[in-house]
Amino acid sequence: MSVKRIDHIAIVVSDIDEATAFYRDVLGLPVAHTERVDEQEVIVACLPTGDSDIELIQPVDETSGVAKYLAKHGPGIHHICLEVEDIEQSLADLKAAGVKLINREPTIGAGGKRIAFLHPKSAHGVLIELSEAAK
User: Fold this and answer.
1) Dist CA 110 CA 118 (whole Å)
2) What are the pLDDT digits (tens) for 53-94?
3) What is the CATH number of the domain that holds 11?
4) Domain tally for the chain?
């Protein structure tokens, strides 16, 4: 597996407009785009910062995984996303190493990127997302 960079750090929020206003108006970060990602049941706002992004995520219903996380833990850091060159190979390498995968196959995330999540139990309590840039 080859990690290229930290793609983003995701922060779960209950109000995307309020959170975006803070990061934009108070911290001075530009908002690159906001989109609804139906497959993940979230609204996402991406704010570039150097070679990585801060990604604000708001659940769109009460049954999604992000909504359950927000209800249990409140707002805050949700996951770290690592960009990889080849997501299928990365998942195969991780599976062979005994890593517990949430997604055995990539799905489509924000910006059309192919993504997959590793279970926090295999990553010392941290939810890790892998992403491969859209081609």
Assistant:
1) 17
2) 999 999 999 999 999 999 999 999 999 999 999 999 999 999
3) 3.10.180.10
4) 1
